[in-house]
Amino acid sequence: MRKAHDFVRKTILGVVDTFYPLFRTFMPLQTYRYAACGGFNTVLDIGLFYSSFHFLLHERPLHIIGLTIGGHIAAFIFSFFFTFPIGFYLSRYVVFQQTDVAKHVQAGKYFTVVFMCVMLNYAFLKLMVDYWGWYPTPSKIVTTFFVVIFSYLSQKNFTFKAPSGND
């Protein structure tokens, strides 16, 4: 299992770092890796959301044990079950590699930050669309900009904080 993990990690780093020279002049390596891994996970999330909403759920609500979940919420939950562990893996083993914190502790911190990002997304979208009357897509773009900054700083300084002396 360790050999498989090492192979996967080295392969991902090899692919991601191949394109770093294009960004080296204006972005540190860790920030670039965060953007690349986060961008991949975001695209995967949107793809899984779209596919599950349109093709798995056929744009209909999901009925489970007397509970009805809207199709878009069910699709969000479905995609979250995939992108949460993938995002954690990429963050721990590709982006923020210098750590001495136990994996289960980091996973709890990672979940906390992700949960806060979900709440920020919701709050910003409610504010911009429902109260300010902005269009949803531009609101989502502005929201994503702020949430990504919050997420990066939180993951770097809270979840995956480097041991003292390695900053």
The number of distinct helices, counting runs of at least 4 residues, comes to 5
Main sheet overview: 2 strands, antiparallel
Distance between the termini: 30 Å
Number of discrete domains: 2
Q: How large is the share of residues in beta strands? A: under 5%
Strand order of the largest sheet: 1-2
**Would you tell me the overall average pLDDT?**
88
Shape: globular
Amount of helix: over 70%
Count of β-strands: 2
What is the H/E string? Answer: HHEEHHH
Low-confidence segments: none
Structural class of the secondary elements? mainly alpha
Radius of gyration: 18 Å
Could you characterize the architecture of this molecule?
By secondary structure, this protein is mostly helical. Helices cover 74% and strands 4% of the residues. The chain contains 5 helices and 2 strands. Strand 1 and strand 2 form a beta hairpin. Helix 2 runs antiparallel to helix 3 (71-95) and helix 4 (103-131) runs antiparallel to helix 5 (136-159). The longest helix has 29 residues, at 103-131. The radius of gyration is 18 Å and the shape is globular.
Give the structure's gist in a few sentences:
With 167 residues, this protein is mainly α. The chain is 74% helix and 4% strand.
